[in-house]
Specification:
By secondary structure, the chain is of the alpha/beta class. The protein is built from 12 helices and 12 strands. Helix 1 crosses helix 10 and helix 1 crosses helix 11. Bound molecules: glycylglycylglycine.
Length: 358
Amino acid sequence: MTAPRNYTISVIPGDGIGTEVMPEGIRVLEKAASLYGFTIEQQWHDFACCDYYAKHGQMMPDDWKARIGSPDAIFFGAVGWPDTVPDHISLWGSLLQFRREYDQYVNLRPARLMPGVPSPLAGRGPGSIDMWIVRENTEGEYSSVGGRMYPGTKREIVIQETVMSRHGVDRVLRYAFDLAQSRDARHLTSATKSNGIAITMPFWDERVEEMAKAYPEVRTDKYHIDILTAQFVMNPDRFDVVVASNLFGDILSDLGPACTGTIGVAPSGNINPDRTGPSLFEPVHGSAPDIAGKGIANPIGQIWSASMMLEHLGEVEAGKAIMRAIETVLADPKLRTADLKGEADTVTCGKAVADALS
Ligand code: GGG
């Protein structure tokens, strides 16, 4: 007898277009569950958003971990509403808490040229750009170590430290090398800025060199972040797995999908590879206040995140089926959204993906 496949997920829509694309991600998840014979129990939470902050003066309740419990995964929308809450408060009060508390030390983000997506690089053909960006997700430049002295005076001083531990760097590099090893290209690129940032970045380079010895089949190269961003724009098809620190990985993983047409389709997984806590899946895009409330946001980033989440949960066939449905919808201008020169609104696009699922 096979074990029942029942999963519990925390659903946190967040702010702005997060609340509009989340229902489409759920629609597709529910359809996939019914087609592929598993169940998804949803536990919705109204915190980790700026509305919650407006009512309670903090982004999450003090007992947020108890309220979340032990789900199999967290499905997240977007955070940020700068008119109400400064961005650094909303981010540190929500997403960064999850990443640290659940030790989601890998942020995995694909950049792939999809069929039909209008992109300056589309002439290269679908599949020609197909990379994974592996971003260190729990330390690095995103640290709260530092301080502010003499605020508001002419003597004002601000200091913020970058934190890199050997343990933290090695574990994300190991994940990236393993990923590179599993792929046909077996090519890993590491991004630093070791000439200018002369303590932490050379350390990262040293760890790459050390780790590479254990992966002789993986072609490894190192770039400075400035020339790498130029190469992403000019020759993105040269890259396969790209690994970088928290800040550089954040930048590259917006730039990569933008090179393939739009950041609106890009998903991400905040992954705890050791499975000592839940992983969190969310679109790369933020809450987009400029288009929030208009019903025109692209739901594909949220839906693709659902596909990544299902693969992480072991529902690989269902995850792949969602990807096929996404490709079908993106190829049709009537079904894709305006950021992709399409005609559909958020709901029409989401329903089309659910209908295309088989
Ligand atoms: N869904 C992604 C999101 O809401 N991002 C907001 C943001 O500012 N993220 C910064 C980060 O991912 O470190």
